[in-house]
Write a structure and sequence with these properties.
Helix content of chain A: 25-40%
Number of helices of chain A: 12
CATH architecture of the largest domain in chain A: 3-Layer(aba) Sandwich
Structural class of chain A: alpha/beta
Oligomer: homodimer
Radius of gyration of chain A: 24 Å
Shape of chain A: globular
Strand content of chain A: 25-35%
CATH topology of the largest domain in chain A: Carbamate kinase
Chain lengths: ~400, ~400
């Protein structure tokens, strides 16, 4: 007998048929004598429909406190419907809202952090042999007001419950059946990984492989919760995410691309100390994250700094630097949205220098120009023209994974 | 400065335009320096849509506990949207769910009774000069599970808050502008009443005038909460419901009809003591309410008993009596759904015997046959053919009210 936490996303419960599919997955594990707690997101487009209703009332965006009150109704609907499906199949079940399930958060509406999960109610229901369905994505702050955890928050809800209850497994069901070495829609012979470490998963997630929410992986790592990513539509093993994976031949875990980046170049900066500090400090104060940074060698007393930011932040980043014109005393500023970041991820790549050169060779073979390079313990990223990104992923995957 | 409780039904907040209409009504009272607490029902067809979703999952009807979990999402959506409209107009506002507003109920899911309203949170918000929006129809039981108060429960929510806070006024906004002497769609010169007593309102409500939920009137009477029934679409005075109304010339408060009744006749019962007791006791044990009762004079050692029940209960009532065939030893049982109950309501009618005869005269003039008659302190009801009911209401209204 094990304690299993499951999480199903909105598309997995989008209609009555899919709700019953999920109900049967849960019942199969319950029938084997397991305790099962399931976290569920809002059905299909419910959240988007509610956002639309809110923007119809206030196109400038309502307060986040009221927005959380509104959006949390979505998971309330899906968790009660899933419970109804299970009870109609003859199994004991109870649905719980975030606050009933003990989710205590801080008061950052729309992006609340979980402070604690009080397990009393869930444990009480499990002791009565009830299947427990929990509304994901939501909690309660110290004022007794409803908060939400931000998009993808249901993954975090599931991991938080698994950590609190010391669950044996935390299964995240999605519309893909695991983590692949590349997007299967892009690379036809992408391979499904049996296992991957938390760090590798974090690199993959932040690089654009939208399988697991990053906060949930961070929390799983912190509390050592073993995750499984698997399909809600097919009954087969998924990908395990854990601290250490057994040595596998394949060193590279995946090839990813991120098209939502922009490159900014500040040209003709005076080649004096503190220039880079002032520039990036100011961007940080505006909460603009900078990714790859390239600084030219000083020449004639000036230098250039080029860096990448998320595409959404490009306009604000450029405006911020323009405000600093007199302080930084540069000659020109350029930005380019037609770029893409292509990366390979795998633990311990630094000790295998051959991998980087193979990656560059794959790009050279296809005549793809590399604009910038960044490396870390677990990844190598290159910035290239956006129009080359799909060809690049395919070429690198073929050369390094096959 | 006064403390005003308002309640708006689902049609009053059915879309964004109407939500803003309601927001402006609230703001108008707030701007005058009043404290305003507003109870709101689910938007338009939301509740019906949610019921449909539930029946798609389980056509036999889900458990009431899960049904309450599901349906309470409807008021959660409408109360946050109304708050968003008010904040977008620049006024301080907070939405509260039933449990946040302090509604404690018993555990009769889908028909919960309010045990207590803890006013702490609402008072705290009012002291901060916030407009308070409360999700109607819902509360929390001692297990911390969500309950609903049954259809029309938002009226009861409003009266309960008004009673707890000792509000100066409790305004129930509907799609009609007050209580009329007859259904204005039926009787073109029906008159709007300025005031009506609780007892008269209760008679009108139970007789088919669907303006106010009966439980809410009973609660208003018990706690002496002065109600006003008024229109959310037109800004004009409605009808006041209170303990004592000033003497008005018009004795009759209204003429109503109820088409959802059935007549059942049990024929050839033995004319011995205890027969009626056994019959009605058994019906009561099945929670079937019996309304008008007519017992024939005994003849040849047998008698007939005829009575009316709500149309929905007719099949079960007949089945119940058929099960008692050997006990009651009757010869035949007949039921008729094509009947209608037409009533006149007014306090102290008993001391004005002329009124009954005028009512019967009006029916005689139109050649309408009276099947049964029932009288009480505040009403006179007749059972007639369903096809005659509209003509009957018009004729009686013309004769007694004009």
């Amino acid at each position: 007998m094990a304690l299993i936490v499951k999480k199903f996303g909105g598309s997995s419960v989008a209609n009555a048929e899919r709700v019953f599919n999920v109900a049967n997955i849960i019942i199969d594990d319950y029938k084997k004598g397991n305790d099962v707690v399931t976290v569920v997101s809002a059905q299909g487009d419910t959240t988007d429909d509610l956002i639309e209703k809110a923007l119809e009332i206030n196109p400038n965006g309502p307060s986040k406190r009221e927005m959380d009150m509104l959006l949390s109704a979505g998971e309330q609907i899906s968790c009660s419907l899933l419970a109804m499906a299970i009870e109609s199949l003859g199994y004991p079940v109870v649905s719980l809202l975030g606050w009933q399930a003990g989710f205590q958060t801080n008061s950052t509406y729309s992006m609340a952090r979980i402070k604690k999960v009080d397990p009393e109610r869930i444990n009480m229901e499990l002791s009565k042999k009830n299947i427990v369905i929990v509304a994901g994505f939501q909690g309660l702050n110290k004022y007794d007001d409803i908060t939400t955890l931000g998009r993808g928050g249901s993954d975090t809800s599931a991991v938080a419950i698994a950590a609190t209850l010391k669950a044996d497994r935390c299964q995240i069901y999605t519309d893909v059946d695991g983590v692949y070495t590349a997007d299967p829609r892009l690379v036809s012979n992408a391979k499904k990984l049996k296992a991957i470490t938390y760090n590798e998963m974090l690199e993959l997630a932040s690089l654009g492989a939208q399988v697991l929410n990053n906060r949930s992986v961070e929390m799983a790592k912190k509390y050592n919760v073993e995750l499984e990513v698997l399909s809600s539509l097919e009954r087969k093993e998924g990908t395990i995410v854990k601290e250490v994976t057994s040595m596998e031949k394949m060193l590279i875990r995946g090839v990813t691309k991120d098209d939502k980046v922009a490159r900014i170049s500040v040209i003709g900066l005076s080649d004096t100390p503190g220039v880079a500090f002032k520039l990036f400090n100011q961007l940080a104060s505006k909460k603009i994250n900078v990714d790859i940074i390239l600084q030219s060698v000083g020449r004639n007393g000036t230098k250039d700094i080029t860096f990448t930011v998320a595409m959404d932040n490009c306009t604000e980043a450029v405006a911020t630097i323009e405000e600093m014109k007199t302080i930084l005393n540069y000659s020109d500023i350029k930005s380019d949205l037609n770029v893409s970041k292509v990366s390979i991820v795998g633990a311990g790549m630094e000790s295998h220098p051959g991998i980087a050169s193979k990656m560059f060779e794959a790009l050279f073979d296809k005549n793809i120009n590399i604009q910038m390079i960044a490396t870390s313990e677990t990844k190598i990223s290159v910035l290239i023209d956006a129009e080359d990104s799909e060809r690049a992923v395919k070429a690198i995957h073929e050369k390094l994974i096959g």
